[in-house]
């Protein structure tokens, strides 16, 4: 089905099943330990254990590998290095190779896998693999590397061919002439995903066919990349990923656990399972690159922005890409004269890649502090300053309108609900015992992306509905919203729908990433259900145009039949996908919100505590208010992490991330987050898709870090532009 417009009504608008706060279908399975995660597929016989040996240098060449002692160790079945693996290719979404040799591109890049009868034997033998390196000179210092880094285009690496600097009007002149200006630099550090479930895979070969049970967000991408890496036809690869314990962007791609399990299983002639140990993840997999950002704002005395520039620099391995931190600044506020640019340095640190609103989150962490600073310079309330500079069109392409943009309403409603009028604009005025108390605000803003998504729907002879799609549920609630969608379309409760996800033998869906999963995958299910409804109506001899599906019945004119009757002559199956025409080019599809945060900073120790948080979001139709709220409070929690705690410490001598475990890479826990409230405005975006829905997951993260920083400034009068805001930075 090609989506042109959802103007008018469709069966989803009934909102009998969709739009209800439905508990997550997978919840009991997950909380009781019954959901089989990748490492826990217990019904695979004869599984051996793999353990990866990671490079102990960041850059250089392997001069020799001695595997003799490992091969002779108890229980060892096979040892695989690049020398034994045959020629490997590279997946489209991988920057660095997943098996090093002879060159090493980054610290902890896999150099070998040891397969043994038990996990302990594999790990012990892995320690016996002797690798000698000729260590090369690496580049590990972002500040240094940015001095000579070239400009890069919008979304790709240095060769993306896009125009490197976005300009509208004459920024420099307008900025020079502005009566009020800000010119400030902001730093965000490297981040690691820190998802609960580590990357894990079980590989099993049947002849030349490979099955991988793996923890992965994007089944179709990853199936392709496994095939490219192992130089085999895509049809011979099957990925199965029904339950995923968090991804955060770290599992958008195929990583070494999958490839080394496949190579190990081939050598061992047995299925092999590998989970990346926690201390391996920060350096073996991908991370969010650090940024150095400069923001310049010029405004008239009445608060109208006349000049806005955002420049960001980040680093990555050769052929990698930038952290696209300027992307939201292109669209968020009006201003006639604009300039956005990115620089990309080559660094020999582990691979930089997508993590939790890649680009948008760190970009908004800088921009939304800058807006707070500028409001103060203007003597304006920061809510009023943002409202003053709202735009209903793309500031770079004024003919392009937002399909919906309720930023102003989010800010106003948030201010009312939060008690913003209680805030003292002058910092350091409010005390609660030893705590200095402050409030901060930031806009939230994340685009919505349309992407093709397919599904198959079956009506069984017993009247039950089954959905099959390779869509994933990374803890977001996909099972539930897909059941709700099919339930609404077929006129049955969500409980009557069986949802099967995460298997590459099912039709290829949008996958989970970039907050595109919910709206696109359900739109694909909608498309398949439209076809299935036609088949049902046809079987019953009903006119499908006026057929109404509700309560397990199909009604047309004065005739009624049950779904069961329709299926009695044999089950019905329909498969379709949603795809998008030029509508998405005509309208800018985005989601908006406003974050309000109250913090306390301890006057004697400098410890920061979040006291309460509120997000007001406008993101199209909310398919399930309960799972959507969970997405947003999770994202707000990540925002607190990025504001106050999260930082990979770089060893600039040897080129690796030092704090590679959850003892030293700190993330917020429940006790750090006392009170969160989420409000969704009532919206339905008929320019987006037939569900009239958009994404919410990453919206909840974009901006919230800056709201925390702004609250800390309001509490203490200290403006910290270098995340995370740890207590040493008050000194
Ligand atoms: Mo998200 S960083 O696109 O999984």
TrEMBL record:
<dbReference type="InterPro" id="IPR049648">
    <property type="entry name" value="PaoC-like"/>
</dbReference>
<dbReference type="GO" id="GO:0005506">
    <property type="term" value="F:iron ion binding"/>
</dbReference>
<dbReference type="InterPro" id="IPR016208">
    <property type="entry name" value="Ald_Oxase/xanthine_DH-like"/>
</dbReference>
<dbReference type="Pfam" id="PF02738">
    <property type="entry name" value="MoCoBD_1"/>
</dbReference>
<dbReference type="InterPro" id="IPR008274">
    <property type="entry name" value="AldOxase/xan_DH_MoCoBD1"/>
</dbReference>
<dbReference type="InterPro" id="IPR046867">
    <property type="entry name" value="AldOxase/xan_DH_MoCoBD2"/>
</dbReference>
<dbReference type="InterPro" id="IPR036856">
    <property type="entry name" value="Ald_Oxase/Xan_DH_a/b_sf"/>
</dbReference>
<dbReference type="InterPro" id="IPR000674">
    <property type="entry name" value="Ald_Oxase/Xan_DH_a/b"/>
</dbReference>
<dbReference type="InterPro" id="IPR037165">
    <property type="entry name" value="AldOxase/xan_DH_Mopterin-bd_sf"/>
</dbReference>
<dbReference type="GO" id="GO:0004854">
    <property type="term" value="F:xanthine dehydrogenase activity"/>
</dbReference>
<feature type="domain" description="Aldehyde oxidase/xanthine dehydrogenase a/b hammerhead">
    <location>
        <begin position="32"/>
        <end position="137"/>
    </location>
</feature>
<protein>
    <submittedName>
        <fullName>Xanthine dehydrogenase molybdenum-binding subunit</fullName>
        <ecNumber>1.17.1.4</ecNumber>
    </submittedName>
</protein>
<dbReference type="Pfam" id="PF20256">
    <property type="entry name" value="MoCoBD_2"/>
</dbReference>
<dbReference type="Pfam" id="PF01315">
    <property type="entry name" value="Ald_Xan_dh_C"/>
</dbReference>
<keyword id="KW-0560">Oxidoreductase</keyword>
């Amino acid at each position: 089905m090609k989506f042109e417009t959802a103007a008018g009504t469709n069966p989803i608008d009934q909102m009998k099943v969709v739009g209800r706060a439905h508990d997550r279908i997978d919840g009991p399975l997950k909380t009781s330990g019954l959901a089989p995660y990748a490492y826990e597929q217990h019904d695979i016989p004869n599984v051996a254990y793999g353990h990866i040996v990671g490079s102990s240098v960041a850059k250089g060449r392997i001069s020799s590998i001695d595997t003799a002692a490992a091969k002779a160790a108890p229980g060892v079945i096979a040892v695989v290095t690049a020398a034994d693996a045959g020629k490997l290719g590279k997946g489209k979404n991988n920057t660095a190779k997943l098996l090093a040799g002879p060159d090493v591109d980054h610290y902890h890049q896999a150099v070998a896998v040891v397969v043994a009868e038990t996990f302990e034997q594999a790990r012990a033998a892995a320690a016996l693999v002797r690798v000698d390196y000729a260590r090369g000179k690496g580049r590990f210092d972002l500040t240094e590397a940015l001095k000579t880094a070239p400009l890069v285009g919008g979304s790709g690496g240095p060769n993306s061919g896009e125009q490197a600097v976005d300009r509208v009007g004459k920024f420099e002149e307008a900025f020079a002439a502005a009566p009020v200006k800000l010119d400030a630099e902001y730093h965000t550090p490297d981040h690691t995903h820190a998802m609960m479930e580590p990357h894990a895979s079980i590989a099993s070969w049947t002849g030349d066919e490979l099955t991988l049970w793996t923890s992965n967000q994007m089944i179709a991408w990853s199936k392709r990349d496994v095939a490219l890496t192992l130089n085999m036809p895509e049809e011979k690869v099957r990925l199965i990923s029904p339950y995923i314990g968090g991804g955060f962007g770290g599992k958008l791609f195929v990583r070494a656990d999958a490839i080394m399990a496949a190579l190990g299983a081939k050598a061992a002639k047995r299925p092999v399972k590998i989970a990346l140990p926690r201390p391996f993840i920060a350096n073996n997999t991908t991370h969010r690159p650090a940024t150095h950002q400069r923001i310049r704002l010029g405004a008239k005395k009445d608060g109208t922005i006349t000049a806005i520039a955002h420049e960001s620099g980040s680093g990555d391995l050769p052929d990698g890409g930038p952290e696209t931190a300027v992307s939201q600044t292109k669209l968020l506020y009006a201003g006639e004269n604009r300039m956005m640019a990115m620089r990309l340095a080559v660094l020999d640190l582990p691979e930089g890649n997508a993590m939790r609103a890649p680009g948008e989150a760190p970009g908004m962490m800088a921009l939304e502090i800058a807006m707070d600073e500028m409001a103060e310079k203007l003597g304006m309330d920061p809510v009023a300053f943002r409202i003053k500079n709202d735009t209903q069109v793309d500031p770079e392409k004024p003919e392009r309108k937002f399909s919906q943009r309720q930023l102003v309403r989010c800010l106003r409603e948030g201010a009312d609900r939060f008690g913003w009028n209680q805030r003292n604009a002058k910092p350091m005025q409010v005390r609660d015992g030893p705590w200095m108390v402050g409030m901060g605000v930031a806009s939230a803003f994340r685009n919505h992306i349309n992407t093709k998504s397919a599904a198959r729907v079956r009506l069984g002879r017993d009247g039950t509905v089954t959905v099959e799609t390779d869509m994933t549920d990374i803890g977001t609630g996909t099972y539930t919203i897909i059941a709700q969608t099919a339930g609404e379309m077929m006129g049955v409760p969500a409980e009557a729908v069986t949802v099967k996800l995460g298997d590459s033998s099912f039709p290829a869906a949008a996958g989970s990433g970039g907050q595109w999963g919910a709206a696109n995958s359900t739109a694909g299910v909608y498309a398949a259900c439209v076809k299935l409804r036609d088949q049902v109506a046809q079987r019953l001899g009903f006119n499908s145009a006026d057929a109404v599906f509700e309560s397990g019945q199909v009604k047309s004119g004065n005739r009624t039949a049950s779904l069961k009757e329709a299926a009695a002559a044999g089950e019905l199956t329909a498969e379709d996908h949603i795809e998008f025409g030029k509508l998405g080019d005509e309208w800018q599809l985005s989601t908006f919100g406003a974050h309000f945060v109250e913090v306390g900073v301890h006057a004697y120790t400098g410890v920061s505590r979040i006291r309460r948080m509120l997000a007001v979001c406008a993101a199209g139709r909310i398919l399930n208010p309960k799972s959507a709220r969970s997405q947003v409070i999770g994202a707000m929690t990540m925002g607190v992490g990025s504001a106050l705690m999260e930082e990979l410490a770089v060893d600039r001598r040897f080129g690796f991330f030092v704090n590679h475990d959850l003892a030293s890479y700190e993330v917020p826990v429940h006790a750090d987050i006392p009170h969160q409230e989420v409000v969704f405005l009532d919206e339905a975006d008929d320019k987006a898709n037939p569900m009239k829905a958009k994404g919410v997951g990453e919206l909840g993260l974009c901006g919230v870090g800056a709201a925390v920083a702004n609250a800390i400034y309001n509490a203490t009068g200290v403006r910290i532009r270098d995340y995370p805001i740890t207590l040493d930075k008050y000194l």
